[in-house]
Amino acid sequence: MFHFANLLFSGPCNARCPDCIGKQIDPRRAPLNLDEYLPRGLDRFLDLIREHNIHELVLTGANTDPLLYQPLARLLDDLRAGLPAGTRLGLHSNGRLALARMDLMRRFDKLCLSVPSFDPVIYRAAMGVEGVPDVGQIMEQSGLPVKLSCLVTEINRVEVPEYLERCHQLGVRRVVLRKRFGERRDWSELLPGCWEDPLEMRFGCPVYSQQGLQVTLWDFERAQIRSLNLFSSGEISAEYLLAGEQAVALAVTYCATPRVEASYI
Question: Which domains does the chain have, with CATH numbers?
């Protein structure tokens, strides 16, 4: 069983995040495709989504932002036509082009914005570029359910309480605080303070109620979640970080047979 599917784009980004997870992906599996139509492997990918009864497809980036994909409108038309009725389309974006491409934003069913800080100085340090997206305007104009994703590093971890308070003021209901890939410290070390017993465990990660928000502490490497992933190379895999020989060995690549052999951990 897959929880969702990811369609990953690759190309020059409009941010320069020092901790971009795309740096962990083998570049051979992420050729540039921001102006390529159709994305390689898409037909087979959609077949597998139907075959495995996956109800959610997320457009995201291996090392870029999906709103930079030039034929996005055409792709959305084809996805709606090719996927079963009721399949949810999600967008995971840094939000920097959200207001400029609002006509496309409204065609999704849900939105996750990667915003590490509302403070312009901290945002610049975390993203490598200036200009905090106007989350309030994005929420208002899109009318979409919006979740915020915040990568917690030394740059921003001391301001997490202020970040959550700002999210609450904006009317955000869900926030995911994420560890850096390779981070070995426990959350108690990264975010010392009063975290009560979790409301629940979601995909192996604790979910808390904090300042009127539902806050998930996400450890990418330990999360018990499975996704089917289409890389820009056309490779379809149940392994997200195809970065090294071990990942290559564990990857489930769909060639002649679609049978799933490994889980996404």
Answer: 4-250 (3.20.20.70)
Is the Cβ–Cβ distance between 28 and 245 less than 8 Å? no
What is the Cα Rg of the chain in Å? Answer: 18
Strand duo 174-179 + 110-114: pairing: unpaired
193, 159 contact by CB (below 8 A): no
- Over residues 1-22, the pLDDT tens digits come to 899 999 999 999 999 999 888 8
Q: pTM to 2 decimals? A: 0.88
Angle at 91 between CA 85 and CA 94, to 5 degrees: 175
- Residue 110 near residue 88 (C-beta atoms within 8 A): yes
CB 62 within 8 A of CB 9: yes
Q: Which residue has the tokens 């502490």?
A: 217
CB 83 within 8 A of CB 46: yes
Q: Are 151 and 178 in contact (CB under 8 A)?
A: yes
Element (H, E) at 77: helix 72-82
* Distance in angstroms (rounded) separating the CA atoms of residues 252 and 19: 26
Q: Could you report the per-residue pLDDT of 152-210, keeping only the tens digit for each?
A: 999 999 999 999 999 999 999 999 999 988 888 999 999 988 788 899 999 999 999 98
Give the H/E segment covering residue 59.
strand 56-61
